[in-house]
Amino acid sequence: MNAFDYESHTRIVFGRQKIDALGDLAASLGTQRALIVSDPGIVKAGHTVRGCESLRKAGIDWELFQGVRENPTTADVESGRQLASQVRPDLIIGLGGGSSMDCAKGINFLYTGGGQMEDYWGIGRAVQEMLPMIAVPTTAGTGSETQSFALISDAKTHVKMACGDKKAAFRIALLDPELTLTQPSRVTALTGIDALAHALESYVTTRRNPVSVAFSREAWRLLSENISRVLEEPNDLKARSGMQLGACFAGVAIENSMLGAAHALANPLTAKFGIPHGEAVGVMLPHVVRFNGIQYDDWYADLWEMTPDGKGSLLKNDNADALAQWVTTLIQQSSLASRLTDCGVSEDQLSDLAVGAAEQWTGKFNPRPVDTESLLELYRQAV
To answer: Which of 7, 11, 113, 247 is disulfide-compatible with 195, CB 3.0–4.6 A?
Structure first.
């Protein structure tokens, strides 16, 4: 096991109708004026209004920024920073999916530290203290609520920048599973597959440690047991609760162990072809599992035995292959693409994609080393 230095920066508050406690939680941080970062879809669903009403009852003034788009860009963050400069909040609330939460972090970086988003690309680039933040996730996917990283795309190049700093961790993650009931079925599938990938990849990275393994395992148990149920019965609140907690715990695991090659391969697919992140990760994940399983099949054995199909059927070998097939079947049942050709990607485009994947930071934590050649072969397997 690797050495580790673990300190939880985020208080997790979980339960039905907890959105109504947002005002009291904000008040506990000494808040007088809050900036809420959300998106039009979440506003339309009524979740943002409900959060605003809770703030009002607690005597907290608020201003709403709803200029968040999927895969937030530097332009989105700059628009939010401009509003923050006018409002001068003492708290920022990210209310929505991963895009809203990441955009909230990005706005906080620029509002408190100045400069451009590119200045914070990497780890520990924030030199000023940042405003306290509360996350209210309405999806079960990114785990951004328990991570100190913001993924922001360059508005011109579409390159995703991972900007991380402990100062950017949410003080409170408010998890209300009822908020996830309004997710469309496709969003449920995309975010669910992304969360599964987080648990699966964080479990086997070169930085895995006792803390990350504990959270990855529990995340995988919750997610693998509930994702099919959520897809079949969208109003099953117990299953929704399992998915939301699983995604949250996977975020804690990422914070402590990072991700791997599946995410390195997925990011260029999103940047160049606009493939949704969850779908891009899902296409590549089974191939990465088989690739890693050549050396680390025993690690995957633990997760395979925890899946609904694998309970009590621990294999002597080929656990990675069984796990990869289970993921593929789940993706197909989710009506998501399982091949690159289904996403409009042709074989003659793979070389450029491999070059981009080799530049991705997460690939450096993959248990089996990857380079342009091996990443190209993984793309070929997914065509």
So the answer is: 247
